[in-house]
Amino acid sequence: MTGSPRPSRLGTRLPPFYCPLERDLVHPEAKQVEARAVEWLDAFGLYPDPVERAWGLATHSADFSCRIIPDGNVEALLLFTEWNYWANAVDDWQDSGSDEVGTGAVVEHGARLLRTIEDPGVSVLPDGPMTRALLDLVSRTHAMLTPHELRRFVEGTRDWLLGAAWRAAQAEAGTMPGLNDFVAMGPLANGTRFSLTWSDVARGDRLPADVLCSPALTALTDAAGFVVSADNDLFSYDKDDHLVPLEVNLVNVLAHQEHCSPAEAVPLAVALRDRVMVLFVRLRAQLEVGADEELRRHLAALGHYVAGSITWQSRAPRYASPRNRHELPVTEAGFDLRFTNAPGITAIEPPGLPALASWWQRVRG
Predict the structure, then answer these.
(1) Residues of 30-46 as b/e, b for ≥16 C-beta within 10 angstroms?
(2) Nearest CA-CA partner of 300 in 80, 308, 65
(3) pLDDT by residue (tens digit) across 312-351?
(4) Are strands 17-18 and 339-340 parallel, antiparallel or unpaired?
(5) Residue 49: DSSP 8-state
(6) CA 5 to CA 284: how far, in whole Å?
(7) What DSSP letter does each residue of 161-184 carry, written as one string?
(8) Residue 153 and residue 147: Cα distance in Å, rounded?
(9) What is residue 70's three-state secondary structure?
């Protein structure tokens, strides 16, 4: 590619982020974790050539992992980091826009992946570097996680794959979903529970099932996932803006609904995202009252997940120097990250979207 990269359809700068959560935390062993993870990637030959390796490392998956899990067991954090590098390679395949990556292919691969995680001996994936690396991950995951933790991880992976399949189906049909459909199903592809399982594993926390699956904590987890997904749709927008039909993301869904440009849809996306962030802060504070130490750590981990994701994405060349504009990632690329002390909306009532309304029912007063 030659010349200056084409400008973003979202404008010259991303809006400031409302994030009244503890920020800039990172695991003290982050450098060690990154070095060991890259050794693992190279040992399995996950990337076929130097260019693919450069783009794989540009995901900064180690930085993501060490920011959303800023404390805890290093071996668990390392395994989670390796999972993230592997999953991002799958995500790039899913988002490639290739004619070979239709809904059927995404569903077929997802079903085989899930069965392999549940039973690594089923032999339903073709041999190759990706499968061999996956089998190593699965073997070590089975050895490290309790049966309940493994079930949580499988369910989190299912969320990710189901969300990816739904988005692929929308793209294949050439349709842009309505806003309510998108907020109900789009954020599944973010894999929130895929990640949060490892936060608890790294800290050695094992919340009782009736606490972990309570309506209020479920709503809080889903709200965190929505905020992270909305933020990702802003940071990653340029990476996928060459796709035809347009990528199914919050900005494009709102632009389609309101008959406006992506840049004009950004304030609408931020307003909805901020309304959910306000709900997240209120509901988390409510759940902290009377919580034991284990639940408090889990609630804090949800905050690390939201805040850490913002910082990671702002510094990842995967997003800041996207592949559709650069032959190779720009090592020092980053966004001009700004924060604001106030949300972009003052309303605390639920938005007029049935897919989100139940979250507000969990807030008292």
Answers:
(1) beebbebbbebbeebeb
(2) 308
(3) 999 999 999 999 999 999 999 999 999 999 998 877 888 9
(4) parallel
(5) S
(6) 41
(7) HHHHHHHHHHHHHT----HHHHHH
(8) 10
(9) coil
Q: 294: burial class by Cβ within 10 Å (0-12, 13-18, 19+)?
A: middle
Cα dihedral sign, 260-237-192-297: negative
Say whether pTM exceeds 0.90: yes
Q: What is the pLDDT of residues 68-127, one digit of tens each?
A: 999 999 999 999 999 999 999 988 776 655 667 688 988 999 999 999 999 999 999 999
Q: What is the rounded (10 degree) CA torsion for 26, 32, 33, 35?
A: 130
Residue 259 CB neighbour total at 10 angstroms: 7
DSSP conformation class of 74? H
- Write the pLDDT tens digit of every residue in 28-71: 999 999 999 999 999 999 999 999 999 999 999 999 999 999 99
